[in-house]
Hints:
By secondary structure, the protein is α+β, with helices and mostly antiparallel strands. It has 5 domains: 1-65, no CATH class; 76-207 and 443-450, Alpha-Beta Plaits, CATH 3.30.70.3400; 213-342, no CATH class; 347-437, Gyrase A, domain 2 (2-Layer Sandwich); 452-623, Up-down Bundle (Multidrug efflux transporter AcrB transmembrane fold). The chain has helices at residues 4-40, 44-53, 55-64, 70-73, 84-91, 97-111, 117-127, 143-172, 197-205, 218-241, 298-305, 308-311, 374-386, 423-435, 452-481, 483-505, 512-541, 546-578, 582-614; strands spanning 67-68, 75-82, 178-182, 186-192, 210-214, 245-247, 267-269, 284-285, 291-294, 318-322, 327-328, 334-342, 347-348, 352-359, 366-372, 392-396, 399-402, 414-417, 442-450, 509-510. The strands form 6 sheets. Strands 8, 9, 10, 11 and 12 form a 5-stranded antiparallel sheet that branches. Strands 3-4-2-19 form a 4-stranded antiparallel sheet. Helix 6 crosses helix 7 (117-127).
Amino acid sequence: MPSMKNKRFNLLLIAVVTLVALWSLWPTWSDYSLSKQLDSFASSQDSLKYVMSHREEIESARKKSLKLGLDLKGGMHLVMEVDQVDLFEQKAWNKDGKFAAIMQNVRAKATQSDARVIDIISAEFKSENIRLSRYFYDIRNSDQEIVTKLEKESEEALTRAKEIIRNRIDQYGVAEPVITTQGSRKIIIELPGVSDENRVRNLLKGTAKLEFRLLSEPEVTIRTLDRINTYLAQNSQNSAAAGGVLPVSDSSAAASASLPPGGTPPLAPVSKQSSAKPLYDVISVSPYGTAFTAERSKEYVVSLLHRSDVQALLPQDTELLLAAKPEEGKVGEKLYAIYLVKKSPELTGGVITEAKATFGSQSVQPEVMMSMNSEGTSKWARITGANIGKRIAIVLDGAVYSAPVVQSRIPNGNSVINGIGSLEEAKDLEIVLKAGALPAPVRIIEERTVGPSLGADYIRAGMLSLTWSFCAVSIFMLVYYKKAGIAADIALVLNILIVLSVLAGFNASLSLPGIAGIVLTIGMAVDANVLIYERIREELAEGKSVITAVTQGYDRAFSSILDSHVTTLSAAFLLYTYGIGPIQGFAVTLMIGTSASLFTAIVVTREIFHLLLAKNLMSNKSFG
């Protein structure tokens, strides 16, 4: 028999573990009860009142409750690809037409193959008999040295993109997202419990490339648009003479309001008459020199302004960008402002240290306030001081959010992004600015959504398997080992409580593979008890007393139980280290369950037997 001191310590340890497990699982029970209470209300008004009066309690329970994985709760599965062709184009210098043609071939081949982009680039340059050093790094570098440097850039870009996406998701509030890389350019993302799928897509895809750019003067904008219009009109006449097809124009300068849905004007053969103002058919200019296009013609205008022949007509180091959000026109038409901005930014978002979504001074329009580091503060003070009375566009991912006039020098490094539609959008913008800009654009190449109804079916199936396995094992232990089986069943319940409480306490999620790990844990826990009970029965068969048999039974079985559990823990650790997604979920629950099984088999059942023996409630027949 153990000493009184050890016995008290063991009892205290069991009590503490049980209480901590129940305390950790209490928010889960509370969340379940509150959800049931909400479902019981007949009207939405009653449920809304209940939510308002119990808001803190509901939010706290939901935050601390046991989270369910994607397969149980539903959510999104995404495969995203980092645009490494764009990344390498950014790293190049001395770019010319030949480089653009090569990279266009690289992009075409990269979309059709999973091969590394750097390998495709290397092969293309080799086929053209052009050294990589002509465009990348130092002219003295060999092709192999440049390939090595670009490989490192590629790996760092993928790692950085993964971490930035993780930061955005964490700030968005998704519990236990699974984010892993695959190959040299893919990122796999699983987001359980996500309901607003479109918002998540926009949050993940935006590169968050923030730039502060100077606007051209209104008269320069008007002259540029006139030049483009003249050029398009001349091409229209040439095309008409050749029997081509062109957009049918309207005589009004605001003809964009009459365009059909779909974004492009109708196409028809032009034989008698062609438009004299093809650009101003889809763009109108205010007396103040601000250009606008209607929402229905936005896509057509964007494609037009991205044409290389049109861009060649722009003043050097400028480009035309559209506003991120439309304005309301006189007849309810949504109009997008068009800005002629400098291509070279005065300042980039890398200097932003803090961003916060809030409401403006009128407490009506949402905005995002930004603070800069010391380098950004000094540059921003110089930029604003040198451009008083001029407009500076705040450009995010190629769209102009606002273009305020500089009233005075700004010495404290603060700035504001407005022109935002809702507070939710402002919060998303805050998230991407805080997380930082992606090193290259990313795009979603695969997306799957698991509905909550399918998740509910999986939960029922998983809980059914867990219940049946628990009942089968419990009944077997009771039938075969009699009173000792009760101790094993109590330990089994505590084992499951410990697994679930650890998952809840560490904010981990329970998935279908996790349920499989719990079912396997039940079998392992009983296996440990069987080893102990059989040793005790052997001691009793030799005529030893119950007290002696229990003590020696545990001592003889300990080494075998420890070896099997350590082996299982090692295997589960390897699964967690080298596995991904569902495999890791299985490994986590298996590791927790194995550790709990060792505790319940060696400590809990032993103390139960000691209590029963102290009260003379056990005999030789208690072990079957």
